[in-house]
Specification:
Blueprint lengths: L11 H7 L2 H9 L17 E5 L5 E4 L3 E2 L7 E2 L8 E9 L2 E8 L5 E7 L9 E5 L4 E5 L1
Antiparallel strand pairs: 1-2, 1-9, 3-4, 4-8, 5-6, 6-7, 7-8
């Protein structure tokens, strides 16, 4: 995690006790769940997807689409200020854009552009299921 201060402070030990090890590793250490294993990958339930660490609202089911990539995909966040985008050079020389919760700084996944999906933004917000909680409507 970065040293940046976020509006919501996360107590790492309390969060570790609350979450399963994979969720904690994804949210706090930028790990990734295996493709096609996540609870929300193929979900069509209507609701709001929230950060599993701090419950901030991140994505709406109306922007979710089936990309076939193995992770839940959205074409836009709930609002631009719901997420933080960070340049990710961890797979150098390939550069990606990491998506974090703007409220607590937890890792969510990555956003990709220009892949040709038939969505309004031409973006695929590829988000780990274990970083989310769906509040059904």
């Amino acid at each position: 995690m970065s040293d940046k201060k976020y509006p919501v402070t996360i107590n790492e030990s309390e969060l570790r006790e609350k979450l399963d090890p994979l969720s904690f590793d994804v949210l706090r250490n930028a790990a990734t769940e295996r493709p096609f294993t996540g609870e929300y990958t193929d979900s069509d339930k209507v609701g709001i997807y929230k950060c599993k660490a701090c419950s901030a609202e991140l994505f709406r089911s109306e922007t979710k689409f089936h990309s076939g990539c193995g992770w839940p995909s959205f074409y836009a966040p709930k609002s631009e200020d719901a997420v933080e985008l960070i340049v990710d050079r961890s797979l150098f020389p390939r550069v990606r854009t990491e998506v974090r919760c703007a409220a607590c700084g937890s890792h969510l996944g990555h956003v990709f552009e220009g892949e040709g999906y038939d969505v309004p933004t031409d973006q695929r917000w590829c988000i780990n299921s274990v970083s989310l909680i769906l509040e059904n409507k």
